[in-house]
Design brief:
Length: 401
């Protein structure tokens, strides 16, 4: 991967943005010009400079909107929304920072204009969930004919707005897409203070209930797709929600914490060791957070979205996110995706793929395709194309059965 910074986290997030130029959620010059102003490894500098870029694009989009240049306005608002999201990305170490909600609200506000100006219009909906509701964006193919529909869920740190490219790619192919956020994600954690839960079928089942109530949805072709940590969430959901026609884990996950803990220590012993030595574990983890932005962000964001106060608490909580013991309950055709240069979940996709007993396929993305990084960031066009080719194969098989 191209090193835009010495800091690997900053480089990865830059590539993530450049990949989103494929559907207009960023522009190459805007990204490269902004990172030139950012001090390498400085989280405050990252926020300040991306805020400046977001505000400039937001102002441009507003001017376009007021002048009646609505296509330009929609394009500008899409980039502004994504840049505000990027500016807010590293702020979760201090939950008292007012910029968390200020920047996030600006991102949502900009995307609200995208939704109403987009063609097709993106429908904002709320799905009943355990006495409250979860937000979603519905990308609907024109007409009221029942269509295959993808439930798209982000992962550890993404948002439903980032699923715009996937949603539009689906509609082009005659497939509806509903991009959702559940506990631990997007506005559900920021606005409702609902944190991740391991039994994610409890989140997905209400979404399926909602979809089968819509006349535009073919209830026999509801496909579940999760990105990054969302790979675990969809695997878990598919194990218990059997109205799902197919499951796509991009990236496949067996044990979410395996790469962050000792691989030689059985999980039960690891939990005992952390619990017994919790003060020492916290001290060591905080030391690692001081010297590595990757660790600093992973643990500070992890504490935020899991609703805990210390790094050791998060590590203990995250042990629950393992598909062991339920993977054999997955019955639908399942696509497990891996990347040649996968580092965040290295080895996890192959492990879960080998264990699955359902109809399954393994898809590897290579560096030579420009898609070798985690979740194919930087190579989202070839990623979408290969994934949708698999989806079309599943739909055809279901139609002919």
């Amino acid at each position: 991967m191209k090193e835009f910074f010495k800091d690997s986290q900053f480089s990865f997030q830059t590539l993530r943005l450049l990949g989103e130029t494929a559907w207009g959620a960023a522009d190459i010059g805007e990204v490269l010009e902004t990172i030139e102003r950012i001090k390498d490894g400085d989280l405050e500098s990252w926020c300040i400079e991306w805020t400046k870029t977001a505000e400039r694009m937001d102002k441009f989009a507003q001017e376009c909107y007021l002048d009646g240049n609505l296509i330009s306005a929609a394009e500008g608002y899409l980039r502004a929304s994504n840049y505000y999201r990027t500016a807010e990305f590293y702020l979760h170490e201090n939950l008292e920072d007012k910029r968390i909600l200020e920047l996030y609200d600006k991102s949502l506000e900009c995307f609200s204009f995208v939704m109403k100006l987009n063609n097709p219009v993106i429908e904002g909906i709320r799905i009943p969930y355990e006495g409250t509701s979860i937000p979603a964006h519905f990308y609907k193919v024109d007409g009221n004919v029942p269509r295959p529909t993808i439930i798209a869920i982000t992962g550890f740190d993404g948002t439903k707005e980032e699923m715009y490219g996937l949603g539009m790619a689906a509609v082009k192919r005659g497939i509806n897409c509903i991009a959702i956020e559940g506990p631990g994600q997007g506005e559900v954690v920021r606005k409702q203070n609902l944190f991740f839960r391991p039994d994610y079928e409890k989140v997905i089942t209400p979404v399926v209930d909602y979809l089968i109530s819509r006349k535009e949805v073919d209830s026999k072709n509801i496909i579940l797709l999760g990105e990054s940590f969302g790979g675990y969430l969809v695997e878990r959901a598919a194990a218990f929600e059997h109205r799902i026609a197919a499951c796509i884990a991009n990236t496949g996950v067996f044990d979410f914490t395996a790469s962050k803990t000792s691989p030689d220590l059985p999980k039960e012993e690891l939990i005992k060791e952390i619990t017994k030595n919790i003060d020492e574990v916290n001290m060591e983890l905080r030391k690692s957070m001081e010297i590595s932005n990757e660790m600093r962000w992973a643990f500070s964001h992890g504490m935020y979205v899991f609703g805990v106060k210390t790094p050791a608490e998060w590590l203990l909580k995250a042990q629950e996110y393992c598909i062991d013991g339920v993977y054999d309950k997955i019955k639908c055709p399942t696509l497990i995706i891996d990347c040649e240069n996968e580092d965040l979940l290295k080895g996890q996709p192959k492990k879960i793929y080998d264990l699955l007993t359902c109809p399954k396929e393994f898809m590897m993305f290579k560096a030579e395709e420009g898609a070798g990084a985690h979740c194919e960031v930087g190579g989202k066009l070839i990623s979408n194309q290969r994934i949708f080719n698999w989806i079309q194969k599943i739909i055809i098989a279901n139609t002919n059965s």
